[in-house]
Amino acid sequence: MIELMNVRKVFNAGNPSEFSALNSVNLHIAENQVTVLKGPSGSGKTTLLSIVGCMSRPSAGRVNLQGREITSLPERFLTDIRRKTFGFIFQQPNLIKGISVLENVMLPAYPLGEKRSQLKIKAMKGLSELNIANKAASKVEWLSGGEAQRASIVRALINDPHIIIADEPTAHLDSKLSYRFMEIIEKFKAEGKTVIITSHDPLVYESSMVDRVVNLRDGQIER
Amino acid sequence: MTHWIEKQRYIIDFTLSSLLRRKVKNFGLLALYTLIVFILASTMFFTYAIKKEAALILNGAPEIVVQKIVAGRHDLFPLAYVETIKNIRGVASVESRLWGYYYDSLVSANYTLLTPPGNDAAKPSAKTTVVENDSGGEAVKPLFELNGAKLEPGTLIIGNGIARLRAIGKDDYMPFRAFDGKVLNFRIAGVLSSQSELVSSDLMLITGEDFRKLFGIDNSHVTDLTVVVNNPSEVAMVASKIKKHLPDARPIIRDEILRTYDSIFNWRGGMMIVIFSAAVLAFVIFAWDKASGLSAGERREIGILKAVGWETSDVIQMKFWEGAMISLTAFFTGVILAYIHVFFTGSIVFEPALKGWSSLYPNFELTPFVNLEQLTTLFFLTVVPYTVATIVPIWRAATIDPDSAMRFTGE
Q1: Which of A11, A12, A50 is the mutation pick for testing B, counting most B CBs within 10 A?
Q2: Sequential DSSP letters for B313-350
Q3: Number of domains in chain B
Q4: Which residues of A touch B18 (CB under 8 A)?
Q5: Beta-bridge partners for A62
Q6: Looking at the domain assignment, is residue B251 inside a domain?
Q7: Is residue B131 pLDDT above 50, yes or no?
Q8: Dihedral class, residue B81 (left if φ above 0, else alpha if ψ from -120 to 50, else beta)
C-alpha cells in the first residue's frame, strides 16, 4: 500500500548545521494492518511518519501510495491526498482554542465544501462513538486530557480516511487512557483501516493488535 | 459551484470566529482604523463641500471688482473714473459700492458694512430692492437676501452671526462711534437669511448716506466698483483694458476670488491632515504589525490547519477575508460617521481648525457634496494597503510546513 524507496531526509542542507534525519530507508507498509514505528528520541520516527503522511517531502528517494508515485506531486495534490487519505492524531491534541469541540472536529472538512447539516451529523456521530457528544458545544480548553485526545481522534476521522497516522499518541496519557486508545485502534483495524503509529511506549508496540513493529535508530531501519 | 460557495461560507465563518477569539486586539484595531478614516473623510467632505458652497455663492458675485490703489494699498475710488470704465467696449454696466469694516470692541468682533447696490443717495438711480440673483437661470445662491425687510436711512440689516453675538434682533438699536467721535444709533430693520451665512455671517447692510456719515466719506468717492461684462470670455480682456486706462486701478476678477477660497480651504484641509498625520503614522505601524506579523499562536494554528488538510490558498483566503472584514467595516463606519459629523453636526470636532478663527463663526449647514473621486482615493489609501498587508503573512504561512503541528509539543 505504501512503499518507501531509498528515502533520505536532510534538514538545513548546505548549512554547517546540516542534519540527516533519515538515511536510505526502504519500507513497505501493508494495508489493513497496524504498523508501529519504534525507536528512541531522534531516531527519525516523526520524520518518517510526516513523509508517509504527505506532510513533507523526502530530500531523496521515492514514495508510492497505492501504486502511485507521490513524491513529485505539487503541493495542491499532496494536500488533497493528505485530506482524503490520511487522518492525523498528534502527540498533543492540537485543537484550536477558542472555538467549540464540534467546530474543531469539522475543520478538516471545511475545504471540501460539504453541506453543513450533513457534516454536523457526521461529526456528532463521531463524537457519540467516542462518548464525548455532550461536549460538542464546549470550548476545547474546558476538556480534560483524555477528552481532548478523543476529540482529536474524531477530527482525524471526519473525512473518513483509509489510513490513520498517530504520532506518539500515548505520550501524554495515563495507562487507563492509553488502553482506551488502543481499543479505539482495534476498532479502526476491524473497520479495515490501515494504522501507522510511532511510539516507544511498550503498551503500544507490545499490544496484541499490532501486526508489525519497525525499529528505527539513527535514521535507519534496524534489521 | 455549491461546494465552492459552501467552502467560502466555512472559511468566512471560521475567519469571523477567529476575529472574535481575539476580541480586544481586533476591536482596538477596528476602533483606531475607523477613527483614522473618520478624520480623513471628515476633512475631505468638509473642504470639498465648503469649496463647492463658496463657489456656488460666489457665482452670484460681480465678475470684476475695481479698486483704486495708492502706494500698493487700497484707497477710496473716485466716482469720476466710472465714465471711463463705462466707455470700455464690452462693459455692460458699472455699479459703485460702499463697504468697510467696523471693529466692535464690546464683543471684539469685526463687522463688514456694505451698502447694497442702488442704495447710495449720492447716485441718482437709487433702488430699494437689494436681493441679488438672476444670472441666466443657473442655480445660484444670492449673495444676501433680505426677506422683505426695507433698508431706510437710520436702519441696518444685520447678518445672523452678529445677531447671535450681540443677542439682538429686529427693531433693536445698535450704537456706533463715527469717524469724528459722534455716536450714531441705528435701528435693526431685519436679519439676513441664514442660507448665505457662510459669507454673510458678519455682514451689515447700511444705506449709503449713513455709511458716509459713519466713516466720513464724501459724495465724490466710493469704496470700489463692480463691473458686469457682456461676454464672460472677455472678462480678462476688459480687466486688462481697465488697468490700461486707469493705471492706479486694480481690477479683481471673480475667478481669482474663487481660487483664493480654494487655496484657503485646501490649505486648512492640508493643515488638518498634517496634524493628524502622526496619528495616521501610528496607525500604519500598528496595522502593519498586526496585519503582517504572525504571532506564535497564529503560526501554530496555521500549522494545524495545514496538517488537517487546509491548502495554503485556503489559509490565504482566510487571511484575506480577515483583512477585508476589518478594513471594509472601518471604512464604511468611518465614512458614514464623517458624513454625519460634517453634514449634520456642522463639523463639531474640527470646527475651529477648518472654518477659521474668529469671534463671529458662521453657523451654516453645508449642502452634502460628496466627491466620488476623493472617496475612491480614500478607499485605495486605507482599505487596499491593509488588505494587502494581511496577505503578506500568507507568504510566510506558505513556508510553515504542515508537519510543524506534529513537532509542536508544548500546549
Answers
A1: A50
A2: HHHHHHHHHHHHHHHHHHHHHHHHHHHHHHHTS-STTT
A3: 2
A4: 98
A5: A5
A6: no
A7: no
A8: alpha
In a domain, A24, yes or no: no
In this predicted structure, what is the pLDDT of residue A197? 93
Q: Give residue A172's pLDDT band: very low, low, confident or very high (50, 70, 90).
A: confident
User: Which of A9, A90, A141, A155 is most worth mutating to test chain B (most B CB atoms within 10 A of its CB)?
Assistant: A90
- Residue A187: domain span: 32-58+74-213
- Structural domains of chain A, count: 1
Contact B6 A107 (CB under 8 A): no
Radius of gyration of chain A (CA): 18
Looking at CA atoms only, how far is residue B397 from chain A in angstroms?
14
Query: For residue A155, what is the domain's CATH number?
Result: 3.40.50.300
Residue environment code for A96-123, b if the CB has 16+ CB neighbours within 10 A, otherwise e: bebbbbbbbbbbbbbbbbbeeeebeebb
Residue A190 counted as domain residue: yes
Taking an 8 Å cut-off on Cβ atoms, the answer to whether B409 and A91 are in contact is yes
**Residue A105 located in a structural domain:** yes
- From chain A, the residues in CB contact with B311 under 8 A are 75-76, 79, 111
**CB-based contact, B25 to chain A, within 8 Å:** no
Contact status of B328 with chain A (Cβ, < 8 Å): no
Are B269 and B342 within one domain?
yes
Q: Is B264 a residue whose pLDDT tops 90? A: no
Co-location of B273 and B351 in the same domain: yes
User: ipTM of this model?
Assistant: 0.86
Q: How many CB atoms neighbour CB A8 within 10 A? A: 15
Size of interface A-B (CB pairs under 8 A): 97
- Residues B195 and B287 both lie in one domain: no
Share of chain B above pLDDT 70, in %: 77
**Which member of B9, B307, B410 has the closest CB to residue A55?**
B307
Burial of B95 (0-12, 13-18, 19+ CB in 10 A): middle
Contacts of A95 in chain B (CB under 8 A): 304
Q: Is the pLDDT of residue B279 over 80?
A: no
Residue ending a domain, choose from B198, B222, B246: B222
Residues B367 and B307 in one domain: yes
Indicate whether B6 and B84 sit together in one domain: no
Q: Which of B222, B246, B281 is the last residue of a domain?
A: B222
Between B162 and B273, name the one with better pLDDT: B162
- Distance between B352 CA and the closest CA of chain A, angstroms: 47
Residue B354, domain extent: 2-56+261-407
